Structure formats: structure tokens, C-alpha cells
Amino acid sequence: MYINEAKDNVGKFVEIKGWVYNMRTSGKIVFVLVRDGTGIMQCVVSKNEVSEDTFEKAKRLTQESSVIVRGTVREEKRAPFGYELDLKELEIVHLTQDYPITPKEHGVGFLMEHRHLWLRSKRQWAILRIRHRIAKSLRDFFDSRGFTLIDAPILTPAACEGTTTLFETDYFGEKAYLSQSGQLYMEAAAMAFGKVYCFGPAFRAEKSKTRRHLMEFWMLEPEVAYLTFEENLKLQEEMVSYVIQEVLKHCKTELEIIERDIKPLEKVVPPFPRLHYRDAIELLNKKGFNVKFGDDFGGDEETALSNEFEKPVFIHHFPKEIKAFYMQPDPDDPETVLAADLLAPEGYGEIIGGSQRIHDYDLLLKRMQENNLPIENYQWYLDLRKYGTVPHSGFGIGLERTLAWIAKLPHVRETIPFPRMLEKIYP
């Protein structure tokens, strides 16, 4: 039996294979918390009800020893996860000595050095289970709406989001780069399949040490032919709301373990508020920030803006000079582009960036020249505007930042199994 199947096995004699999470002895009873990856179950070893050898083995157990336990499942509301095992047989697979992460407090630096073991803790288990649910929910959302998953390459010949944050590598004598985004390739795929998305790792060589930055992160990027800017925002609202509802439905235990107040999450339903970039500048100035038209927003500005709203908020119509070359200028306000960032509430800032794309060949070529991009590397991208071009839109949602908000974590380092941060690539 797996521990998460306990409710279906009450009164049955079962076998569980796992590891000792913790234990304590109380005279003639040993309480052993066993985890198996799906949950934690308290196993009660009574001296009068087991052999002397079994009781002595139970007393010898240590944290993270691997064990096979057998006994009868019973409901016990006071026990972790609501069920207990009356243990009758115990098999020690491996007796662990001097496990480094004890129940006492440890510093973050120490825990990160032992990330391969820290994953076993109840809190990290809960966080990464929520990550799994978010990823599944994102896929389910798009799959159920007729999108086709298209895998984007990780090695690319050119930049997508600016040349200053590229990881460069040698590709048989030529320069190649780790992908910053699959978006450009999704635009090509959208012209073949209509509605597509990719979901995979992205890399940014950004020398930042903030609580929101990773060098390697996961991003889901949909792209849709004939999708307008307004329709793009609506798709994002529906997607975020769906993900939140799925997490609330399926991750009750995990949210309780990390002590997440779910009331703010329950408010995340469409429509989301919208704030024009010009109005955002005005609001920030009132809050004491020295920003003007043409400035990009950093973490502090995003935090200040998102704290003004109980729901995620769209900041839209950014100046074209601070946004990517492929974004469609607003015909009614050519200084700005049909782009929006979605800021998560509770001070978490940007989790989605999206826009309507330029579909006119001459305008795209002009914007590439203004950005000093090597045209020959992007000729295939320009081809999309030569052969059956249509208006189209898309966006990218960062999995780790979204998880940090949903789980209300202080730093993104806990949102990915093995984080890659500035000067941190071990283990």
C-alpha cells in the first residue's frame, strides 16, 4: 500500500515501503513516522503486541533509515494525515547513521548544500507536490482547449529576450545559446497548428540575487493564430483562475503543511484589474518612487503595484523602447505596445509577460534593425510574415514565480528541485 491509499485500506493488513521521518519512544510504545513519498503515517509499535526482536529493532531505528513495515491500518484523527498503522512486522532495509538534517533549525546555506536531502522534509515535499499540481493543471487547461504541445529547442542560434542574458556555448565551431524562451518557435508552430504551447526550461544569465531570480527556470508559452491582445488577456485570466482552483481542490494537505492562508487565493477569479503603464507611473510617483515614462519596473516597483490589488493585476501598454522587438505597437498610441505583464498579488510581482506580435513584415524588419539584430539569424522568423501572415498573440508564465506566489514562499529557491542561482550550481 502507498500511504495516500490509507482511507481505502482501513482494517486491512498492509505492507508499506518507505523511510523513517521521525520517531519517539514512550515506555512500552515506540511511535515511528514513516514516509513513502505519498505521505507520512504514524506506526505504533506496542511491546506487548510484537515479538521482542521487532520491538528492539523499532527502538534502534534512526532518522531516514529505510524500512518495510507491516500491520493493520486504522483511522486516528490525532495522527498525521488521519491514519495510523498498528505495526506487527518490521524489516530494516538500511540503518542510517548521522543523518545531517535533524529536526532542529538549520541555516539556508546549509540546507541548500544538502538540497538532495532537504527534498525529504515535509515542507519541501509539500511545495514540490504543489508544483506538480500547477504543472499538471497548466497542461490540462491547454490540452482541454484544443492546444497542441510543441517542444521548442533548447539550443538556439540567436537571442529572443536580449543579448545580455545569454548563456553561450560552442556548437561544433559555431556560437550557440541556451534558450531564453520558446516563443519565436511557437509562432512558427501556431501558423501550422493554430493553437500551440511549449513547456520546458529556459535560461537567463542574469546576474541578479533577488528572491525572484533563477538562472534556469520552467516556462509555459502558448501562442495562438488570430488571437487579439484583448483575447490574450482573457485567456490568461481563465488559465490562472483554473490553476488556482485546481490547487485548492487537490492540495489541501500540502497547503496546510506550509500553513498557507487560502483566503487570498479564493479571491482569484476573473476579471482581473488592469492598470495602464502611464497610470502605474502616476501611482508609483504618489508612493514616493522616482519613475518616469520610459522606465522599466524592478522588483520594488512591481511589489508596490501588486500590493494595491487583491487579485492579479495587468500592467499594460508599456513603452515600445523597453519591450521586445516583436511586440505590436498600439495603432492608437504608437509610443506603446500591445503588451501586458500580470503581477501576482501579495507583493509577488510579475508571473506572466505577453503581447500581440508584429505580423507586418516591413514593421518587424524595421524593429529588428532598430535593435541591431543580425537579420540573417532571424530570416526564418521573418519568413512567417511573408507566407500567410496573420495577427497572433501569446505569453509566457513562469512556473517557479507562480508557485512562489501560490505557496507564499519567501524565495524562489524552494520552488524547483535543484535551483540554479548566481554562483550556485551544487548539487
UniProtKB/TrEMBL annotation:
Pfam families: tRNA-synt_2 (PF00152), tRNA_anti-codon (PF01336). GO terms for biological process: asparaginyl-tRNA aminoacylation. It comes from the Bacteria. It is found in: Cytoplasm. One of its GO terms (molecular function) is nucleic acid binding. InterPro entries: Aa-tRNA-synt_II (IPR004364), aa-tRNA-synth_II (IPR006195), aa-tRNA-synth_II/BPL/LPL (IPR045864), Asn-tRNA-ligase (IPR004522), Asp/Asn-tRNA-synth_IIb (IPR002312), NA-bd_OB-fold (IPR012340), NA-bd_OB_tRNA (IPR004365). The keyword Protein biosynthesis applies. Residues 128-417 form the Aminoacyl-transfer RNA synthetases class-II family profile domain. The keyword Cell division does not apply. Keywords: Aminoacyl-tRNA synthetase, ATP-binding, Cytoplasm, Ligase, Nucleotide-binding, Protein biosynthesis. GO terms for cellular component: cytoplasm. CDD domains: AsnRS_cyto_like_N, AsxRS_core. HAMAP family: Asn_tRNA_synth (MF_00534). Belongs to the class-II aminoacyl-tRNA synthetase family. Homodimer. This is Asparagine--tRNA ligase. It comes from Caldisericum exile (strain DSM 21853 / NBRC 104410 / AZM16c01). The lineage of its organism: Bacteria, Pseudomonadati, Caldisericota/Cryosericota group, Caldisericota, Caldisericia. The gene is asnS.
